[in-house]
Amino acid sequence: MRFHLCAAFYVLIFMRFYDLSKAEKALVYIVIAAVISLEALNTAVEAIVDLVSPEHKRLAGIAKDCAAGAVLAAAVGAAAVGVALFWDVEVFRNIGKYFAENIIMLILLIVSVIAWFCVIFIPQGKGKDKKK
């Protein structure tokens, strides 16, 4: 979930550099919502399976794998939409030029990358379930 939220954050930030139609913007929003929604459903399925079947069972594993597979399929689809809409070398140059000319925005971008890196890769506690 953290990785997908990070990706959505940067997609929404960098969308401003593209001249997307309303339909293309809507597609981006729908794809982001689909991935985040499926990630939430995957978490719910895993929690329910763990609750009703704490010991490892083949069917429980299949349920978890299917839920994770749905997230993966949506993420691959989202990546394909991203490549189709955002792969433009000229826009990449314009983005680089923008940040080269706006040092404050470059610093904010770097700080956001560091913050997201910490959110994604530094282990997070699980509240009450965290073992001491």
Tally of individual helices: 5
Largest sheet: none
Beta strand count: 0
Number of domains: 2
CATH architecture assignment of the largest domain: Orthogonal Bundle
Structural class: mainly alpha
Please give the alpha-carbon distance between the first and last residues.
Answer: 25 Å
> What would CATH call the class of the largest domain?
Mainly Alpha
* pLDDT < 50 stretches: none
Strand content: under 5%
Shape verdict: elongated
**What portion of residues is helical?**
over 70%
**In the CATH scheme, what's the topology name of the largest domain?**
Helix Hairpins
Mean pLDDT: 92
Q: Spell the H/E element sequence.
A: HHHHH
Computed Rg: 19 Å
Quickly describe the structure:
The chain folds into 2 domains: about 1-10 and about 20-85, Helix Hairpins (Orthogonal Bundle), CATH 1.10.287.3610; about 90-120. It is mostly helical and about 130 residues long.
Describe this structure in words.
- By secondary structure, the protein is an all-alpha fold.
- It has two domains: 1-10 and 22-87, Helix Hairpins; 89-122.
- 80% of the residues lie in helices and 0% in strands.
- It contains five helices and no strands.
- The radius of gyration is 19 Å and the shape is elongated.
- 8% of the residues are buried.
- The mean pLDDT is 92.
